[in-house]
């Protein structure tokens, strides 16, 4: 069976740690083993069972105190230190040949939109034999409330996809907070990034300052020319929503194909 890893990204407050916990809990119910590794050296707490924690190697507080850097500079320094000591990451992910690994990343978007740090981490994982997929979370209660934030968020998703060059799933998280205001069946243009329909709506267009109409239309045209971004809604209170999200990521990672291949092989191994 292959080795599979999710790199969970997204801005601070987008629900990354909650996503990791929910996926781990759902996997438990399915009899699957999911190992979650905290990759945020500034993290204070999380609710999942951590199989590894980068704070055992370095913390942002240590960097800030010793290097006299700010929080963002301290985070970048910490990741550069991690890459210089990549044997730590090799040790953390090296023993999970038949399990699923999730890396819970920090929320500073410069890490996954334009700095070359995460692509180097992806390369380390691939050298270990992992098939890696990016999972990018956006808070639906923020981006659905303001079309300007939706445009900016979608650009950040596209930037991360182009930088990482790995299979990618974008998720609108916290749908349990927005489903009464905006039911999923009314969100097709948001989920599919249908810019023509979005910008044709007079109520949404009114949210955009007049001086930015031309710029927003140009951004919409750009995203139409690179139709890579779409979103999967996630309501962590809904079993069907969690199941759909996990199934999508399994398909992206070809997890089911590897699982079926292993099941076909097992009887022969037993017979021999």
Topology pattern, helix = H, strand = E: EHEEHHHEHHEHHEHHHHHEHH
SS-derived structural category = alpha/beta
Number of strands: 7
- Strands side by side in the biggest sheet: 3-2-4-1-5-6-7
Outline, from the CA principal axes?
globular
Q: Rg, please? A: 20 Å
Oligomer: single chain
What would the average pLDDT be, to the nearest integer? 87
N- and C-termini, Cα separation: 18 Å
What is the count of helical runs? 15
Strand content is: 5-15%
Biggest beta sheet attributes? 7 strands, parallel
Q: State the helical fraction.
A: 40-55%
Task: Note poorly predicted spans.
Answer: 261-272
Sum this structure up briefly.
By secondary structure, this protein is an alpha/beta fold.
Give a description of the structure:
Helix 2 packs across helix 3 (71-84) and helix 8 packs parallel to helix 13 (213-225). The chain has helices at residues 16-30, 60-67, 71-84, 87-93, 110-113, 117-127, 140-143, 147-164, 175-178, 188-191, 195-200, 202-207, 213-225, 239-253, 255-271; strands at 3-9, 34-38, 50-53, 100-104, 130-139, 168-173, 231-233. A seven-stranded parallel beta sheet has the order 3-2-4-1-5-6-7, with helices on both faces. With 272 residues, it is of the alpha/beta class. The relative contact order is 0.15. The protein has 15 helices and seven strands. The model is unreliable at 261-272 (pLDDT under 50).
